[in-house]
Fold:
Amino acid sequence: MSLLQFFLDIGLGLVLGCLGGLFGIGGGLIAIPVLGLLFGLDQHLAQGSALVMVVPNVLLALRRYHQHNRIDLRHALVMAGTGFCAAWLGAQVANLLDAERMRLAFGGFLLALALWTALRLFLRRVPGGELRRPWPWLVPLGVGSGVLGGLFGVGGAVLATPLLTTLFGASQVVAQGLSLALAAPSAAVSLATYALHGRVDWLLGIPLAIGGLLSIGWGVRMAHVLPERVLGLLFCGFLVFCALLLVLD
Structure:
């Protein structure tokens, strides 16, 4: 890798980290299709390499969200514990599946998620706030999000966020912060699994992680300034954009 390429990868990490902080996903969701388009990586290698950036970015974003809007420790531990175990299972399954089919399935999943989130924004009349369901309900949410996070290499936050807003009545910001608690351990175990299968490009992932760590705080600050509906609509648009990148790759 040349020095110029190293700094270009850091610049890409800056953009991905800012988006990851804004939407509470650590940057992996956009990184996966971008790595496929710009670097020609297959779905498995793109997911594994993106996780190198996602793991430290999620940890820092979680800390930033907690500083802005304190995250309930019990809720965070339930999400993290269930997500960790389920993510290992999802990552094991992912390494057995066809990369092309995974890419298309991931794109379809994101489009469906965007439609669901948009409907929730326009149909919900009561503003979101703290969780309106007791903590045991978070167990199946953590399991389902963890499995899909390990399967698609995105840490589970992308699924947990709309579920928390729709089924638990959380605001977009509260949901994104709590989803990061799920994403942190599940992303770590997913990275370890992909690395053991030799599906991680460390020379690409490390500069992306450096750039992401430098910029993720900017995105977190933006998330706490924007009105909830605006942030939710941006999240929907972001999902659609990522899905189109995957389908057009």
Observations:
- The radius of gyration is 16 Å.
- The chain is about 80% helix and 0% strand.
- The chain has a mean pLDDT of 80.
- The first helix runs from residue 3 to 23.
